[in-house]
Specification:
One of its GO terms (molecular function) is thiosulfate-cyanide sulfurtransferase activity. One of its GO terms (biological process) is protein modification by small protein conjugation. Residues 30-267 form the THIF-type NAD/FAD binding fold domain. The chain is an alpha/beta fold. Helices cover 38% and strands 16% of the residues. It has helices at residues 7-12, 14-20, 30-38, 51-60, 93-104, 143-155, 180-190, 192-201, 214-233, 280-293, and strands at residues 41-45, 64-69, 109-114, 132-135, 159-165, 168-174, 243-248, 253-259. An 8-stranded mixed β-sheet has the order 3-2-1-4-5-6-7-8, sandwiched between helices. The protein is globular. The termini are far apart.
Length: 294
Amino acid sequence: MKDLLNEQEKERYRANFTYFEYYTDIYKSSYDMQKKIKDSHVLILGLGGAIQDVATLASLGVGKITGLDFDTVEYSNLNRQYIYKEGDVGKLKTEAAKQRIKEINSDIELNIINKKITSSEDILPLLSNVDLVISGIDSPGIISSRWVNFACVTKNVPVIFSGINGNKILINKRSGEGCFDCFLMYCSTNDPIFKYQLNTLYGYTFEKKNTAIAPTVSILSGFITAEVMKHLLNLEYQMRAGYMYQFDVNELTMNSDYHWEKSSQCPTCGKNPSKELCDITTLMKIVEGHSNDT
């Protein structure tokens, strides 16, 4: 099966082949697995901290990567977005990212788009033949994740959401189970304080309020890209959908105690899904109505 890859690829991915031998059987070889990765397409929304994900997936050999951003490189990015260099400051992140990633792996198909996401409609056209989405956008607060969630649910594309809050790393994978709107509904039902937080943060533009540093971004990127690999290869021990995983950098512990089910009342993925993303007021009214019924 070695003819699935050319000679340069066989040399480049020698360590990959050795690692994949842990997962091989009579039906698939390590070369089959590398070819599967080569034939995959991952979409990454946001090229800030997620630029590390792009670099890692390019090194892994993901055959097609689409990345999207609209911002420029700033000095304040360099404490954690270390793919960018001092000479990139002032450049579009898309321009700098394309140059850097091509230096890592010139064999992959790299599609870098300079665009600002303002709605789910901006995302839907990007999801054709995409195997998985990594959402690296968090502003404007909450609504940006709802845009991504709605588009991915509509097109039935798995998505990984993540974030950093001080010494805590949060990561969630949505793949056929409760979606991000289900999460908001669950939290609003079970935590009275959450509604206040939701109203405060919804649509908020985060500027100069970032607790991410290089070590935590590196750890998060490792978690995300390892999960992408497991998903693309359909390996065991993938993250369970509908769970929020939290890694404590101080304690070096991971827990997944936070869990929500798919809601039949969810306007995005429930029994009667809406053709358009509903506003947050409508979503909260559904929560209140469901709570009154129960």
